[in-house]
Amino acid sequence: VVPGETALAFYKAKNPTDKPIIGISTYNVIPFEAGQYFNKIQCFCFEEQRLNPQEEVDMPVFFYIDPEFAEDPKMAKVNLITLSYTFFEAKEGQKLPLPGYQ
Amino acid sequence: MSTAMNFGTKSFKPRPPDKGAFPLDHFGECSAFKERFMECLRNSDYESSACRQHAKAYLQCRMERRQLMANEPLEKLGFKDLTDDTSEAKSEK
User: Fold this and answer.
1) For residues A42 and B20, what is the distance between their CA atoms, to the nearest angstrom?
2) Which of B26, B48, B52 has its CB closest to that of A57?
């Protein structure tokens, strides 16, 4: 990934249970100091997402690394930035009025 | 998973995405585009720059199905150089 250039990444999530699950995710960036340079344009996080029983979906993240990352001497040795997401269950099986879905 | 030992520096504050959340592609409408993108990545040793055309195609697929992504000019999504290329190619024909 080149700092300043937009990039796309995919995660995959599966609901292995027989009930719909509403999840919400948050993210983490390692190393910690690189997090300030990580800019998400659009992703699946922070909003509740519903996964039906046995459903598997692709979860995209569209992002870029701030070009100032390349100027920061503290980042000189950082060659690998790891983005991870953790899904939390919101409320199991609850029907939410999801905008845009009919 | 991570235990960041913060020695008094600013804490990591997760920030929401600039343009909000992607609705889930429950019906896999753009899965084919995603597969082509992933295949490109595998073939180019996971170098993101090499696969920007495929990333652009995936996002265009989402935008065409309006429930999956709001329409944005491609230049604003960082694909300005790719849109110039396509218009150049058209004028050469």
Assistant:
1) 6
2) B26
